Amino acid sequence: DNLMPNKIDDSISFNLLSIPEVLQSSLKEVITDVDVLGKATPISEWKTKMTSKDDDGTRILKDTEYLERLFSLADIYEKYQNVMYEKRYYDYDDMILNAINGIEENNSLRYEIQDKYEYILVDEFQDTNDAQMKLLNQIVDYDEEDRETNIMAVGDDDQAIYKFHGAELSNILNFTDTYPETKIITITSNYRSTQDILDVARYVIKQGKERLENKHSFIDKTIISAGDNKDTGGEI
Fold first, then answer.
1. What is d(CA 3, CA 104) in angstroms, rounded to the nearest whole number?
2. Residue 162, C-beta contacts closer than 8 angstroms, at least 6 positions apart
3. 90-115 pLDDT tens trace
4. Rg (CA), the chain
5. What's the pLDDT tens digit per position in 65-83?
6. What is the pTM (predicted TM-score) of this model?
7. Looking at CB atoms within 10 Å, which of 11, 14, 132, 185 has the fewest?
8. What are phi and psi for residue 209, nearest 5 degrees?
């Protein structure tokens, strides 16, 4: 029963930005672009991207329209959740949310899980979403005084392609902010591709802005081919 939310108000909210925060972030990027380019073109592009006109011809933020649709969806979701709760059913996609809710309301459950799982390993970490990250933070046995963690994350920020599935790149980018004593190990040997392919791939990948290499100067993800595998049947 501890894992069942009592009502929709118990549902979890995550890293959702408010409209002022969205505006601040986007305008900051626009102003930077204007300074670099020396012309106002980015402002016009921002206006087209971020605003639209309503039926009265008044210019409004597109996010405002999105927010209205989000509230409508929330009303439907509330009714859905209430029916599920009444019938004592679980939605597969909501199991993690139910676990988070149960742990938040029951510290003994948190301690029981922490005692049971001495070490935690997460693979494909770049594909985790906010709910999964929140659950991990709840069950990781992190001692603020000893500065020790029992979690190991394996992933590659340059392979983060599942945003449309809810994956949150900030989970891997900000991992060391949450756990400052993290040791980062970079694998730079490749056994699948020739160096020419790796060099071209790296040139393309480096065009991205939100990357661990850009955040931490000590990280170098230059990949070296362990050998030309064109005669070995190696996978490219």
1. 10
2. 127
3. 887 788 988 999 999 999 999 999 88
4. 23
5. 667 777 888 899 889 989 9
6. 0.63
7. 185
8. -95, -45
